[in-house]
């Protein structure tokens, strides 16, 4: 199969699970003998633009005509079987869908978050769940400045969502949701249920599985409010005041809360802030963990670190909402705490560290779940199945005539 992957890479200064997923899928397809091209833009490149070029970036978020022209030309020249779209913000834009229609190539899109119904894609505002824009106009997001706390920065995202909603819904053959929880939200928002499939992300087998109880608890991810970092700090302070749990907390990652985390961890024996780990360091840290902690306050669409822990035979302590509920079987492959509840998180951390034998059994169960649902072999099979479905659907429409609004439209932008 010939696949062209379309992705706007997130900045390299902070960890990106989405970048990792894209790179792993490209490698998986190539290892499986498939021909894979990549059409990408990099957010890192914005810094090197002129002042005028930087000022123009928000205007490209809803629509980048140059991308449409460039991608359509490449599609006509290479004739891939399918285009797989990931992130298009901020430099690619939904113009990639028009390019696919121009060239008559079916498009598949992985939905890594909730940007189809929420401008910042988080379904969260001021640390609390928010669905004001779901199934409605995105004006509340602008009013509240939901993207980076700025009304001005939120406007391009809101405009893109409003202007391109029908284009997304009609221009993509298969939407790949990364969890059933995410799919449920999008169906309720009115997205076409028949083209929303659940395809979990896979992770490579790390090659080693934990056999010992572990020597630390591990938070691995972006240091941001939505990821539950402040909640974790509050829970850990409560545990420390009550005598601790006998193992240190290791925090690996970077993000907007890094200064706060650095100051909080300074001078403590029970906390180690280690900065941003590379892939090898991440795998080593996970394999040496009693448990991986995922206390997100927002509704995670997936939770890559949870599956990475499963692959290493390590249980997870995670928030009991969003995709975590389908990834973590409470008491079997890990423990779930009440969302946004520091006391509940603290109790689960104490429980997982107090019973090493139970933790090992949870780790073994987590590894079995990984092999069944999240291994590379399973990931490749499900990915190819969705590609074939998209290709067949596009072929059927071509034979019978396309009546969907927006397909091959006469867009003059």
Automatic annotation (TrEMBL):
Domain Glycosyltransferase subfamily 4-like N-terminal: 18-203
GO MF: glycosyltransferase activity
Keyword Glycosyltransferase on entry: yes
UniProt keyword terms in alphabetical order: Glycosyltransferase, Transferase
Pfam families, alphabetized: Glyco_trans_1_4, Glyco_transf_4
InterPro entries: Glyco_trans_4-like_N, Glycosyltransferase_grp1
GO biological process: carbohydrate derivative biosynthetic process
Gene3D superfamilies in alphabetical order: Glycogen Phosphorylase B
Domain of life of the native organism: Bacteria
Protein name: Glycosyl transferase
């Amino acid at each position: 199969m010939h696949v062209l992957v379309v992705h706007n890479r997130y900045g390299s200064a902070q960890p990106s699970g989405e970048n990792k997923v894209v790179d792993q899928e490209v490698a998986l397809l190539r290892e499986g003998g498939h021909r894979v091209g990549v059409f990408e833009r990099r957010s890192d490149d914005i810094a090197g633009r002129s002042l005028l070029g930087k000022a123009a970036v928000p205007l490209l978020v809803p629509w980048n005509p140059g991308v449409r022209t460039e991608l359509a030309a490449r599609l006509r020249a290479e004739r891939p079987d399918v285009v797989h779209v990931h992130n298009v913000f901020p430099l690619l834009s939904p113009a990639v869908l028009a390019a696919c229609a121009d060239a008559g190539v079916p498009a598949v899109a992985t939905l890594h978050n909730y940007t189809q119904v929420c401008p910042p894609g988080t379904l969260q505002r001021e640390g609390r769940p928010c669905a004001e824009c779901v199934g409605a106009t995105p004006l509340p997001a602008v009013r509240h400045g939901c993207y980076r706390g700025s009304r001005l920065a939120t406007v391009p995202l809101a405009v893109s969502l409003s202007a391109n909603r029908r284009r997304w819904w009609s221009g993509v053959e298969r939407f790949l949701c990364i969890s059933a929880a995410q799919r449920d939200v999008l169906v309720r928002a009115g997205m076409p249920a028949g083209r929303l499939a659940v395809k979990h992300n896979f992770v490579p087998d790390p090659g080693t599985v934990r056999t010992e109880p572990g020597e630390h608890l591990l938070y691995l991810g972006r240091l941001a409010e939505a990821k539950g970092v402040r909640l974790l700090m509050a829970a850990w302070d409560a545990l420390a005041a009550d005598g601790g749990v006998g193992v240190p907390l290791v925090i690996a990652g970077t993000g907007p809360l890094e200064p706060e985390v650095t100051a909080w961890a300074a001078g403590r024996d029970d906390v180690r802030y280690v900065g941003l780990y590379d892939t090898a360091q991440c795998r080593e840290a996970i394999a040496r963990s009693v448990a991986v902690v995922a206390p997100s306050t927002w509704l995670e669409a997936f939770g890559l670190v949870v599956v990475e822990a499963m692959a290493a035979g390590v249980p997870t302590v995670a928030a009991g909402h969003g995709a975590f509920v389908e990834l973590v079987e409470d008491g079997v492959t890990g423990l779930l705490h009440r969302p946004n509840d520091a006391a509940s998180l603290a109790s689960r951390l104490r429980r997982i560290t107090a019973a090493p034998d139970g933790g090992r059994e949870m780790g073994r169960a987590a590894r079995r779940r990984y092999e069944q649902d999240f291994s590379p072999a399973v990931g490749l099979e499900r990915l190819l199945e969705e590609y074939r479905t998209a290709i067949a659907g596009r072929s059927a429409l071509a034979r019978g005539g396309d009546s969907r609004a927006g397909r091959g439209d006469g867009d003059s932008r």
